[in-house]
UniProtKB/TrEMBL annotation:
Keyword annotations of the record: Plant defense, Repeat
Domain Disease resistance protein winged helix: 153-236
Cited PANTHER family: DISEASE RESISTANCE PROTEIN RP (PTHR23155), OS08G0543500 PROTEIN (PTHR23155:SF1219)
Residue stretches making up the NB-ARC domain: 3-71
GO biological process, one term: plant-type hypersensitive response
Name this polypeptide is given: NB-ARC domain-containing protein
GO MF, any single term: ADP binding
Family matches, as SUPFAM superfamilies: P-loop containing nucleoside triphosphate hydrolases
Database matches in InterPro entries: Apaf_helical, Disease_R_plants, NB-ARC, P-loop_NTPase, WH-like_DNA-bd_sf, WHD_DRP
Transmembrane segments annotated in the record for this chain: none
C-alpha cells in the first residue's frame, strides 16, 4: 500500500487500528511512500530506501518506451537519448515519462529540443522530477491535455474505469471526431496514448458490481481500469482549477467560482449544498 498523509494523529487514531485489524498472526504490511515524515510515523523497523536504477537499466526502460513505434535507434538519437537518460537520475517514472514523450517524436531536432529544455540538474544540482513531468504535459496534444487534466477530479489512487472515463470526456466536449474515428474510438485512442506515455498506469481488467435500482438486484461485469501515479495527479491538479474536492472547498484551497467538477460521496452531499448556497 502507498501512503501520503503526514498527520500522526490520523495514523494513530484511524489507520493503525484499521490495518492491524485485518491481518492474521504473522502478517506483514509493506508501506511505500515518498515522504520521510510518513516513514518515521508508520515504521516499526528501519525504513528501506530504494536505490536509483543503474545507467544501463535506466537506458533499457527509457528505450523500450522511446523506440516503441518502430522508430529506428539511429546513432544520433541514441546519443541524445543517453544524455537525456542521465538527467532522469535513475528514477523509473521520469524515465518512462521521457521515453513516452520522445516516442511521439520522429526527428533528431525534436529530440535535441527536449534535451535542451529545462529539466534536471537544477536546485543546486539536486534532482527534481516535476520539471520533467510538466514538460511532458506541455507536449501533449490539446485534447489529451484536457482529458488528462480532468482526471484530477478523482482522488489519488482511485481506480478509474476506462469506459466511464471516456464517456465523461465525451460529455464535457473534450474530444472531437477525427477522420473515420467516432467519439468513442477517439476516446479509446486518447486513453491508450495516455497509458503508453505513463500519464495513466496499472491498466488491467477488473470485475465490478452494479446495482440496477429498477430491478432491485446486483450484477457483475468486466471492465478495464487504470490508476494515476500520485506525482502525475499532482501535475493534473497544477494545470487545472476546474476540479476540486469538498475538503479543498471547505478549507478555501479552491475557489467555487472556478470549479466545474467534483466527485463526492452521498455523505458529502449535505456539506456541498451548504458550500454552494443554492448555486
Amino acid at each position: 500500500m502507498e501512503i501520503w498523509n503526514e498527520e500522526k494523529r490520523i495514523w494513530e487514531d484511524e489507520l493503525k487500528r484499521l490495518l492491524c485489524s485485518v491481518g492474521g498472526q504473522g502478517s506483514v504490511i509493506v508501506v511505500t511512500c515518498r515522504s520521510k515524515q510518513v516513514a518515521s510515523i508508520m515504521c516499526t523497523v528501519k525504513p528501506h530506501q530504494l536505490v536509483f536504477l543503474t545507467e544501463e537499466d535506466s537506458w533499457e526502460l527509457f528505450s523500450n518506451k522511446a523506440f516503441r513505434n518502430s522508430l529506428e535507434q539511429q546513432a544520433e538519437l541514441v546519443t541524445i537519448g543517453r544524455r537525456i537518460v542521465s538527467k532522469c537520475g535513475g528514477l523509473p517514472l521520469a524515465l518512462k515519462i521521457m521515453g513516452g514523450l520522445l516516442g511521439s517524436k520522429q526527428k533528431v531536432h525534436e529530440w535535441k529540443a527536449i534535451e535542451e529544455s529545462n529539466i534536471g540538474d537544477n536546485d543546486g544540482g539536486k534532482y527534481e522530477i516535476m520539471p520533467i513531468l510538466n514538460l511532458s504535459y506541455k507536449h501533449l496534444p490539446f485534447e489529451m491535455k484536457q482529458c488528462f487534466a480532468f482526471c484530477a477530479v478523482f482522488s489519488k489512487d482511485y481506480e478509474m474505469e476506462k469506459d466511464r472515463l471516456i464517456q465523461l470526456w465525451m460529455a464535457n466536449g473534450y474530444i472531437q471526431e477525427e477522420g473515420t474515428m467516432d467519439l468513442t474510438q477517439k476516446g479509446e485512442f486518447i486513453f491508450d496514448e495516455l497509458v503508453s506515455r505513463s500519464f495513466l498506469q496499472d491498466k488491467k481488467v477488473a470485475v465490478k458490481s452494479a446495482i440496477y435500482l429498477s430491478f432491485g438486484h446486483k450484477t457483475q461485469y468486466e471492465t478495464i481500469v487504470c490508476k494515476m501515479h500520485d506525482l502525475m495527479h499532482d501535475v493534473a491538479k497544477d494545470v487545472t482549477n476546474e476540479c476540486a474536492s469538498i475538503e479543498e472547498l471547505a478549507q478555501q484551497k479552491a475557489s467555487l467560482q472556478d470549479v466545474y467538477h467534483m466527485q463526492m460521496s452521498k455523505a458529502e452531499l449535505e456539506q456541498t449544498s451548504v458550500l454552494c448556497k443554492g448555486r
